[in-house]
Amino acid sequence: MNMTRERLIGLAGLGSALILLTGFGFQYLGGLAPCELCLWQRWPHAIAPVLALLAVFTGGRLMPLAGMLTMFGSCGLGIYHTGVERHWWPGPSSCTGDAGGLQAMSGADLLNFDATVPVVLCDQVAWQMFGLSMASYNALASVVLAGLWLRAVLLTRR
Domain total for the chain? Predict the structure, then answer.
């Protein structure tokens, strides 16, 4: 199947928008609050549809190249988060392990409704399917989307 540059860009932008909507669905419909790293992973997927619109309307290689780099960044964040979840390496101290003393809180502290909202830990898998977490699926999907952006870069006329 011969894909046009605009169709590839549209698919890449739509793919990111769907990933972002899925994240919001897990959060607001499924009740799974995102951790700090989950929120970081949403940013590239929020940026990609904007880049897709700019790429279609402005032409040139710059926007598809930016889209590809954005998705490789998203893939890197997904791999990093997967490693944190699997305890291959440490994650941000603000959302892993003790999470700034969260585990040392007393019962009275936990029942204090004026206190801040509890931290969602980045090193705990909230959901998985076939042994892969959402972070792992984000990394895989981001590689596919980066491939679409790359193909669009290669089809862009000089």
Answer: 1
Q: Residue 117 sits in which domain range?
A: 5-90+106-155
pLDDT digits (tens, 9 = 90+) for 68-117: 999 999 999 999 999 999 999 988 888 877 544 445 455 565 566 665 55
Residue identified by tokens 């893939």 is: 75
Give this prediction's pTM.
0.82
Residue from 13, 80, 95, 68 nearest 41 by CA: 80
Q: Quote the tokens at residue 93.
A: 């101290």
Q: Measure the CA–CA gap between 69 and 24, rounded to whole angstroms.
A: 23
How far apart are alpha carbons 129 and 70 in whole angstroms?
Answer: 25
In-domain check, residue 95? no
**CA dihedral of residues 40, 42, 43, 48 (deg, nearest 10):** 150
